[in-house]
Fold:
Amino acid sequence: MARKSTRSPYDFYPTPEYVTRALLDSYPPKTKWVIEPAAGRGAMVKVLQEYGYKVQAVELVSEYAEETAKLGVPISIGDWRELCARADIKAVLRLNGPWAIITNPPYTIAPDFTASCLKLMDLKLDSTGIYRTKSNIGYLALLLRLNMLAGPISTCWPRIWDRFKPTAIRSLHIRPSFTGKGTDMCNYTWVIWEQDRPPIDFEVIPSSRKCIRCRECSSCRKVEI
Ligand SMILES: C[S@@+](CC[C@H](N)C(=O)[O-])C[C@H]1O[C@@H](n2cnc3c(N)ncnc32)[C@H](O)[C@@H]1O
Structure:
């Protein structure tokens, strides 16, 4: 029987501060410029600022965005998947940088959201097997559920992992609570892609020919990667 869950509207789940600190202490970006593309009320932005990063935020819900703006960061209101393809946003990204993208994405659209970040980052393997990019984005870190690294075919994850293997994985030992009311029994991990590094040796083993690269999956075709 399918498990029913009631998710917060727009997948708003503020990230406990120590989760962002764990990333920044363990595997910080080398740049000072960070985009937070699903900023919510600014829980991650606050920690990024504390570590000295210059943040550009994006948030879908204006009420949340207004609160993040109070932290003194520039914020664009809208759907990241559309905004990141727009010429004016690309122009902003060319002004400073190189940029890192760091967020805890909305999970109901996480594959799509991840694909948008990866497309913007535009990593290409060179002849020695190292990721290079001509974009101004050299680092991407997304907080994901550990089980997304396997991902049932219907979630599109295997297709993303096949096309863009990450360069580092930093799993959290403690299960965070995003609601203040205990954990959701899931383990979480930072998944990182960084330029000038090789992808890790990682594969989701397909359970049948049909599953390979999700060619047969109607759901996957929704995520262009
Ligand atoms: C899991 S919460 C994380 C919030 C914030 N990053 C944090 O860690 O506290 C996801 C956030 O993404 C926002 N969101 C949902 N869909 C979005 C979209 N298409 N583009 C940008 N933000 C979106 C939600 O409103 C919510 O604030």
